[in-house]
């Protein structure tokens, strides 16, 4: 069946069923003041290097530089040296780079087991560019980090690490272990060619891991990951997936409803002045303010949670749905924040749709404004695919180039990129543009 031509605005509500569905269905309660948008088919762009995360990027002088890929030790998938960078005169040129155009930056080495240092694999998810460095070369990479009991065994004296007891199954088979995700910071002073690890600044510890027999989703044992970070009012605000138990997990009194109550997309923040020494400095939202410690129990953004009556549930269950993998940007045309996210509907992050949400409050630190996101609306559905890591990217228009837009700051139009996964094929690509329309 030939797919319906997917130009659909948020005002055209209704059920669409076809092999590819592009849709925009907002929250009726906020429909009058929520921005509108339309998804426009565009020439297909295939990315020529490995991507398994948000695209981290920055303008270094007049060069648009991207940092896709994975680096470090991984006993499940094998050690990786796929974290690379490529340049362009604008975003489209950088995204069109050939595989041979990508170069490896100098990265810190993994430390031996039980030695302080970098453990596990890392993916750069966001690059914050120090605004006080006029050269544009001082960069802070927010990275997603994954470990296992084998790479980060439990240390009773520090509480760090994991116990290989009733550990849940991983994604590659019955004998594979699930990973635990954490979030850290690296710094570069030469535009991203050499990186120094500054440490983990948000994590969940062993007590919050969800173990056998309850964790059967083949995703994470717990932890925090898949982040997107934006600078606002002297802080770096971190939007991330929360996969741990909201308290101490105990097999005997485990409650799936309680697990769900503490999961989905959460937010934390750290002062920009603490990025050089970030360990222990972040504070997580606890329902009233940024009061929970970096390794404490926070509270997710309630409007982004999927209610149980709509299929929402614990991330450790293979039959529950939850939003994950946020990508946040400030839109200068709408004068508001835009968030894209995936939706898991089955084991191993199965899910064929991506969703969009808005926050019209510029100051994320004022009162509860960091929580004021609209109910996620369907943006794109491709049955038969897993859709991961959606993001909006600038184009090669004079306006985008002169404003030096990146995935963190955009105008009225942008490219939609998303990772499309099938059983024997995985592509990071763009087939659409998105155009925003101001609400009346």
From TrEMBL:
Please list which residues make up the signal peptide.
Answer: 1-22
Per UniProt, the keywords (alphabetical) are:
Signal
Domain of life from the UniProt record? Bacteria
Query: Which protein are we looking at?
Result: DUF4185 domain-containing protein
């Amino acid at each position: 069946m030939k797919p319906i031509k997917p130009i659909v605005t948020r005002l055209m509500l209704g059920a669409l069923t076809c092999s590819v569905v592009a849709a925009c269905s907002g929250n009726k309660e906020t429909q009058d003041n929520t921005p509108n948008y339309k998804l426009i088919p565009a020439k297909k762009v295939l990315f020529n290097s490995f991507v398994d995360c948000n695209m981290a990027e920055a303008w270094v002088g007049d060069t648009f530089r991207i940092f896709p890929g994975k680096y470090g030790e991984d006993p499940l998938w094998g050690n990786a040296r796929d974290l690379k960078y490529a340049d362009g005169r604008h975003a489209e040129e950088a995204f069109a780079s050939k595989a041979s155009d990508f170069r490896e930056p100098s990265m810190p080495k993994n430390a031996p087991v039980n030695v302080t240092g970098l453990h596990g694999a890392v993916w750069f998810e966001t690059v914050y560019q120090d605004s006080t460095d006029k050269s544009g070369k001082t960069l802070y990479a927010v990275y997603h980090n994954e470990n296992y009991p084998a790479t980060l065994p439990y240390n009773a004296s520090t509480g760090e690490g994991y116990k290989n007891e009733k550990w849940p199954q991983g994604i590659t088979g019955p004998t594979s272990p699930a990973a635990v995700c954490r979030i850290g910071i690296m710094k570069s002073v030469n535009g991203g060619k050499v990186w120094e690890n500054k440490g983990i600044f948000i994590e969940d510890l062993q007590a919050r891991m969800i173990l056998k027999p309850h964790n059967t989703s083949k995703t994470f044992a717990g932890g925090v990951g898949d982040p997107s970070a934006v600078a606002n009012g002297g802080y770096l605000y971190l939007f991330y997936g929360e996969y741990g138990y909201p308290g101490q997990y105990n097999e005997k009194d485990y409650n799936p409803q309680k697990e769900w109550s503490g999961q989905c997309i959460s937010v934390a923040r750290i002062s920009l002045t603490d990025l050089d020494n970030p360990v222990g400095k972040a504070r997580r939202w606890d329902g009233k303010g940024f009061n929970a410690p970096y390794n404490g129990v926070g509270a997710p953004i309630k409007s982004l949670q999927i209610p149980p009556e709509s299929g929402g549930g614990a991330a450790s269950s293979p039959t529950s749905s939850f939003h994950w993998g946020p990508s946040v940007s400030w839109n200068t045309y709408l004068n508001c924040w835009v968030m894209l996210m995936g939706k898991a509907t089955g084991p191993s992050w199965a899910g064929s749709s991506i969703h969009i949400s808005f926050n019209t409050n510029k100051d994320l630190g004022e009162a509860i404004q960091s929580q004021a996101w609209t109910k996620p609306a369907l943006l794109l559905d491709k049955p038969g695919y897993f859709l991961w890591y959606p993001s909006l990217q600038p184009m090669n228009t004079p306006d985008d180039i002169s404003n030096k837009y990146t995935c963190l700051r955009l105008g009225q139009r942008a490219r939609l990129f998303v990772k499309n996964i099938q059983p024997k094929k995985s592509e990071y690509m763009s087939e659409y543009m998105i155009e925003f329309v101001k609400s009346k």
